[in-house]
Amino acid sequence: MYYKIGVDVGGTNTDAVLVSQTNEILAKTKQTTSLDVSTGIKNAVEAVISKVDVSKRDIKYIMLGTTHCTNALVERKELNKIGAIRIGLPASSSIPTMADFPEDLKALLGAHIYMVHGGYEFDGRLISPLNEEEVKQHLHAMKGQVESLAITGIFSKTLPDQELQVAAWAKEILGNEIRTSCSHRIGGLGLLERENAAILNAALQKVASKMVNAFKDTVRGLGLSSQMFIGQNDGTLMSLEQVQDLPVLTISSGPTNSIRGAGALSKVKNGIVIDLGGTTSDGGVLVNFFPRESTQAAQIGGVLTNFRMPDVVAVGIGGGTIVRFFEDKCQLGPDSVGYRLKEKALAFGGDTLTLSDFFLANQKLHITGAKEAIKLQKAIAGTVAMKYAEALSVVKDQIRLTIEKLVDKLKTDETAIPVIACGGGAFLLPEKIGGASKVIFPEHMEVANAFGACIAQIGYEEELVINTTQHDEDDALEELLVKVKNQLLANGALEDSISTLTKESIPLAYLPGAVKLKIKLCGDLLG
Amino acid sequence: MRKIDSNAIEYIAMGSTVLGTGGGGDPYIGKLMAKQAMETYGEVSLIVAEELDDGALIVPIAAFGAPMILVEKLFSGGEFIRAFEIMEEYLGRKIDAVMPAEAGGLNGVIPFAVAAQKDIPIVDADGMGRAFPRLEMVTFTLHGISVSPIAQADEKGNRNIYQTINNVWGETLVGATTIQMGGSCVLGCYPMSGEQVKKAAVHGIISYAQKLGECILNAKNNNLNPLEALIKEANAIKLFVGKISKVTIKTEGRWNKGVCEIMGFGEDQGTSMKLDFQNEFLMAKKDGRPVAITPDLIVLIDAENAQPITAESIQYGTRVVVLGMKADKQWRTPQGITLGGPQKFGYKEKFVPVEELNKN
After folding, report:
1. What confidence tens digit (pLDDT) does each residue in A355-400 have?
2. What is the average pLDDT across A192-203?
């Protein structure tokens, strides 16, 4: 018998669950996220361990879900000093690197941007050979001024050797401590989007290392020898080494974990998950226990990338959402008091009417330190010039309408499907929603995120372009499948549990014989 | 004459994607190139054909190649200028204005990059009013204008001039060398006089693309439904509402041929639609009956944000609206239907205008 711990570090709370080998939740906790991150993690992990009589030796895995990298990017904090090299001259110079970046981010990251000769044609012929002198001259110019380097070559997805060569020269000139972000490991076809992703990745490597070290030190400091993983965008896990290399792949793990977690808690395979927080409610679609991905190109911190992200639609309904009445109608948010609920809200002696106030007043929600329900009802009635019961019904109607719109937006057809609640604000969700076959409030829904991190699988994907006039397509696909499977096994997957997430071959327009193959497999962790 | 700034390019690029009717390549790359060129060389003047001298020399400029290659091996920028300059050299005179050959997709915005750099105007006209997969499929052909001389250049510096016996041979030869050049190149083709442009082009198409783009991108600011705004501006017919249920795609010769199947939703619940495409959408059938046929425009729109979807980015599960739009009147003549109609693509069905197919 072994156990797993899932930790979710959010902006406000750090949650943790301790689960059995069969994913049964044995303990859970909600702690405040600390400024240094590690204290919050330490408190949460200690809390779940103390609640259950298990030997620390038997805690085999600890999985971390975190929005730390996302926040760093959005807030432009702690980003690395980066350099960027694009390999492909004379092609590609018509669009400069970072052409479509937000100005502030360009100013922050754009000091050492270079293009050099190199790159490949789709069929593997050289556009130009690499010029060692040219590359090294740029590397010398970066000396002492960059911490990580993004390297992007034309058709490096098919032939990565030039990117790898530039990375090797970078170590030679800038020293072994320089981190490199080779685009072929990060994004798909599409030079600009892949280059953008490589740049964001390079910018996040320091933040990621800090986070990983904090996590590792905390876990080891608690005397645990568990293997550690971090959740990534598609609901699969990465090793700590991978995260430091490819931090950008964790950027939307938050919604992914909550959607997967809520699906597993409710044992519902297909449906809509609504994660209700302090500021927003985020709706996502669960398809076969995985989040539906967006068909739109994903923007991260204002930058276009070709990552596939969970398709999430947010509405301004959360525990801290500010409620305003205009005669007998009410408007919800979209602003929120957020984490300052306990100083701003009516229930805590503040002057702002929030959604939490309404549900503290009818005792559906309990928070220590809040006013008595009867007193709070009077205070609300005084603020809105209406009886509390009437005002509550107006507010509930408004919530229901907003949620129904959200559900309708997420659905792909008119069939009623289950809606699953999760998150700390789940008390806000009505028990009946138009368009929903049922509304499910699963046990442990407040820690769905941490649970989602805990049940993540490991996955691996690759894509490449082949010329079918030279290679047999079926053989190439089979070869790729074996390659991906072997890598997944090497990463620690249980062979019998491996399933295919993506297997596609797409012919490229205007080119006879050119086909793009893509395979992604996932599987359970080796027990 | 009016000035086009980089804000206007955003709208034109979005409108070009609508006119691409699923093909023509994603204009994102073209938009960035045009913006970059305008930042360096200044704004571009857009003129209507009437402003041209009858004797002026106008050359349509186009990117040629596989959409997938164009987003990976970006242009150097120099190939446009080389194609332009060898055309001038070959003809022994200066080019007075450029124009798009194809307003749909990437090629709707590409000529702005050349116009900015050469500081010459761009004509508010093209040879399609949409996108088509072959070089000869332009209204210029209907007026007996030769595609040749064709000036071709790649990013490496290779250049060609073609003199072909007819416009189909232009497509054949340029198609073959483009693959050797690595799958993409730039063309200057159909050199024309001002008089010919006035007669043979689809006029006002850039301004039209801009209006369509404004409908989609601005509707939200004006509290309008972007889809309704687009339908109104394009005088489009809403053919179908549904969810993509299947996509099949295969290579035949030089093209992607495929079928996109859509399951009805809302008012179309219980019915289905099939869209055939060869780079562009060619035929829309609702429960087996044609509701829109090439050269009329079939536009696939993402129901969530009213933005057009290109054929290579169709994904299972997307909620979509299918619109039918009338082709330019030149395409609806007997000669136009022969060049761009269903028989050209091997269909048995005869062309019937979209408004007649959907008369209730």
Report:
1. 999 999 999 998 889 999 999 999 999 998 889 999 999 999 999 9
2. 94
Structure tokens at A461: 């994907």
Q: A461: closest CA among A487, A479, A439?
A: A487
Given an 8 Å threshold on Cβ–Cβ distance, is B279 in contact with A509?
yes
Indicate yes or no: CB of B65 within 8 angstroms of CB of A90. no
Which among A515, A517, A520 has a CA at the least distance from the CA of A502?
A: A520
* A507/B32 CB distance under 8 A: no
The 10 Å Cβ neighbour count of residue B130 is 32
**For residue B341, which amino acid is it?**
G
Distance CA B224, CA B267 (A): 21
A389 interfaces chain B, CB cutoff of 8 Å: no
Q: What distance in Å separates residue B196's CA from the closest CA in chain A?
A: 30
Q: How many residues does chain A have?
A: 527
Q: Does the structure show a pLDDT above 90 at A346?
A: yes
Ramachandran class of B182: left when φ > 0, alpha when ψ lies in -120 to 50, beta otherwise = left
A140 and A74 in contact (C-beta within 8 Å)?
Answer: no
Q: In Å, how far is B226's CA from the nearest CA of chain A?
A: 15
Q: Which of A90, A122, A413 sits opposite B69 (nearest CB)?
A: A122
The answer to whether the CB atoms of B253 and A512 lie below 8 A apart is: yes
C-beta of residue B236 within 8 angstroms of C-beta of residue B292? no
pLDDT for residue B118 is more than 90: yes
User: How far apart are the C-alpha atoms of B176 and B307, rounded to whole Å?
Assistant: 34
Whole-number Å distance between alpha carbons of B293 and A29? 61
Residue ranges of A 158-187 with Cβ closer than 8 A to chain B: none
Residue with tokens 């910018």: A203
Beta-ladder partners of B122: B46, B98
What's the predicted TM-score (pTM) here?
0.85
Averaged pLDDT of chain A? 89
Q: Is B1 exposed, middle or buried (0-12, 13-18, 19+ CB in 10 A)?
A: exposed
Tell me the chain A residues in contact with residue B32 when contact means C-beta distances shorter than 8 Å: 95, 99-100, 192
Min Cα separation B287/chain A (Å): 18
The answer to whether A89 faces chain B, any CB pair under 8 Å, is: yes
